[in-house]
Write a structure and sequence with these properties.
By secondary structure, the protein is mostly helical. It has six helices and no strands. Helix 1 (18-30) runs antiparallel to helix 2 (35-52), helix 2 (35-52) packs across helix 3 (60-69) and helix 4 (75-92) runs antiparallel to helix 5 (99-133).
């Protein structure tokens, strides 16, 4: 059935960057007809998301490793990012991954992308906003202690 268009994918999280969201929404729209195509689009969305998280965007596997080194994302989400990358790659390379495995993982990739946005964009923004509520003097004193602790290690 082509119309009405329906999807089982969760909505994109509100903080998802617009260019990432465009690929996400397109992947959601085609998922029921082509999970492999959806997986490839979600891999592209992840590559764009890496740029929003401060990486170059040239090589997605390098970007993911850099996000790990910089502690932008926790290790479990780095593993998830690798799952999105590998499944997206295998979706377009014949014989690399069984079609039913691509279909299963592709169905979870929407959640994975949303989690990466929440951990990499939403939570840092919310934590920064909360930290800025702290009175300036107390915040400066805490930052001074933090800096002293880093230099003594």
């Amino acid at each position: 059935m082509i119309y009405p268009d329906s999807t089982c994918a969760p909505l994109p999280t509100p903080d998802m960057p617009e260019d990432v969201k465009a690929d996400y929404v397109e992947a959601a729209a085609i998922f029921t007809r082509s999970p492999r195509a959806a997986a490839a689009l979600l891999r592209l969305a992840l590559q764009k998301l890496c740029i929003h998280l401060g990486e170059k965007g040239d090589k997605i596997d390098v970007d993911i490793r850099e996000l790990a080194k910089k502690h932008v994302l926790p290790q479990r989400l780095i593993n998830v990012a690798d799952t999105v990358r590998i499944t997206g790659n295998n979706a377009v390379h014949p014989g690399e991954m069984a079609a039913e495995d691509v279909d299963l993982v592709a169905s979870k990739m929407f959640l994975m992308i949303n989690l990466i946005v929440v951990k990499g964009i939403t939570e840092p923004r919310e934590l920064d906003a909360l930290y800025k509520i702290t009175p300036e003097g107390a915040r400066a004193a805490a930052e001074k202690k933090d800096a002293a602790g880093r230099t003594s290690n």
